[in-house]
């Protein structure tokens, strides 16, 4: 196979869409393309990216959490249509429907449906709803603010004068409050009437895994997914020396490197259902290829049943151009969607830091593209959307051309 088009795209995107990147493509199980690009931290004159550099996976972490949860479904610990309250009793009762804070525009609110309508019944929400993102939960809530105090500046330019609470006892107490906030949160819309991608729902999935296994979430993911597959992926913090840095945080007074970028995950200690994993493109693509092979019935020692993967990749909820399986994003008809150039049976996930994992069964193709796009800041011009579409087009052109 020739990958000149893909090489050209990656090199031309350096310094625009990301400073560092790592790509792994597998076709019919064979690793046909595996390269690293760029410099880890241009601002500090850091080293070049290599094939062992770890990237903050952001929401691609969700797939590892979902695979862990679905292994528990396979084991008979619960069913997809089990009410969440059966495992997390606090998640019950009537809830108001209200706007939620806009994570990208501080002070702004996102209103999915007009507030003041009928209350939502948390007790009727099932795990299927959480996984299909049609539970009614908001996309995001600022739990992390519970772990900040205002009794000391971090930077002179930081007008809010926030700093992270460091006392372990106080942090533990605050994390109990954060957990309670997730379990009793207001809803953004009535269950099953819309599809709103929700970090809150996956945080609850992480809580459920811990409750069902008696392990911490990182231990359960290692025992049921990364360990059996022999992957080096794991929750942070990780050694920063060969880790792609992400955004510079005012409340940390430093660029995040080796510690999770997501504020809520960081505040929970770096291990949650929605974020927290660090990995190489080699390991992420190996995980994705195992899932693709489960779906095709060719996976050795599968971590999930074939019927389970079929259910996960079946259309479970749809809202406009948004199509969701269980944990997975599915092919989108939207031309500016990363999945659009792929076959309509494609399934995968994106991560806010600039990461992606997609499986295209029709091409027997799996690819992981890991970048640290958010290095430039979350309010920088969006160069990532166009890159992702161009990347999918380049990959399919290279594979189809062979």
Describe the protein.
With 402 residues, the chain is an alpha+beta fold. It has a domain at 70-217. The protein is 30% helix and 16% strand. The protein is built from ten helices and 19 strands. The strands form seven sheets. It has a six-stranded antiparallel β-sheet, with helices on one face. Helix 8 (281-296) crosses helix 9 (306-312). The protein starts with a helix and ends with a helix.
Topology summary:
Elements: H1 4-13, E1 20-27, E2 30-38, E3 55-56, H2 61-74, E4 94-95, E5 100-101, E6 109-110, E7 120-121, H3 127-132, E8 148-149, E9 163-164, H4 168-183, H5 199-213, H6 217-229, E10 234-235, E11 248-249, E12 254-255, H7 263-267, E13 277-279, H8 281-296, H9 306-312, E14 317-319, E15 322-324, E16 329-330, E17 347-351, E18 355-360, E19 365-371, H10 384-401
Antiparallel strand pairs: 1-2, 1-19, 3-13, 4-7, 5-6, 8-9, 10-13, 11-12, 14-15, 16-17, 17-18, 18-19
């Amino acid at each position: 196979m020739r990958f000149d088009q893909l090489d050209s795209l990656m090199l031309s995107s350096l310094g625009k869409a990301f400073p560092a990147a790592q790509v792994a493509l597998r076709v019919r199980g064979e690793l046909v393309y595996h390269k690293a690009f760029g410099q880890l931290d241009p601002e500090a004159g850091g080293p070049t990216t290599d094939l062992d550099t770890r990237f903050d996976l952001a929401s691609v972490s969700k797939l590892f959490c979902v695979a862990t949860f679905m292994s528990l479904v396979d084991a008979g610990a619960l069913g997809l249509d089990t009410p969440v309250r059966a495992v997390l009793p606090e998640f019950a009762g009537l809830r108001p429907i209200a706007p939620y804070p806009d994570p990208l525009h501080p002070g702004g609110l996102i209103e999915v449906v007009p507030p003041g309508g009928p209350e939502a019944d948390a007790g009727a929400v099932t795990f299927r709803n959480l996984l299909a993102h049609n539970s009614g939960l908001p996309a995001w809530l600022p739990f992390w603010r519970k772990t900040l105090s205002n009794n000391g500046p971090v930077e002179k330019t930081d007008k809010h004068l926030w700093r992270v609470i460091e006392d372990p006892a106080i942090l533990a107490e605050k994390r109990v409050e954060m957990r309670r906030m997730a379990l009793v949160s207001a809803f953004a819309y009535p269950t099953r009437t819309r599809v709103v991608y929700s970090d809150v729902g996956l945080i609850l999935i992480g809580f459920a895994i811990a409750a069902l296994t008696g392990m911490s979430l990182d231990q359960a993911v290692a025992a049921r997914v990364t360990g059996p597959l022999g992957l080096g992926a794991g929750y942070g913090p990780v050694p920063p020396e060969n880790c792609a840095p992400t955004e510079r945080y005012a409340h940390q007074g430093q660029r995040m490197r080796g510690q999770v970028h997501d504020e809520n995950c960081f505040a929970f200690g770096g291990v949650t259902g929605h974020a927290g994993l660090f990995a190489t493109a080699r390991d992420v693509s190996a995980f994705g290829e195992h899932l693709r092979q489960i779906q095709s019935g060719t996976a050795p020692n599968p971590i999930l049943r074939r019927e389970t993967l079929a259910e996960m990749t079946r259309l479970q909820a749809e809202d406009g151009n948004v199509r969701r399986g269980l944990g997975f994003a599915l092919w989108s008809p939207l031309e500016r969607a990363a999945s659009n150039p792929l076959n309509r049976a494609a399934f995968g996930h994106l991560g806010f830091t600039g990461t992606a994992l997609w499986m295209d069964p029709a091409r027997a193709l799996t690819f992981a593209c890991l970048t640290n796009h958010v290095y430039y800041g979350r309010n920088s011009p969006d160069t990532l959307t166009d890159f992702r579409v161009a990347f999918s087009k380049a990959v399919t052109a290279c594979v189809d051309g062979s």
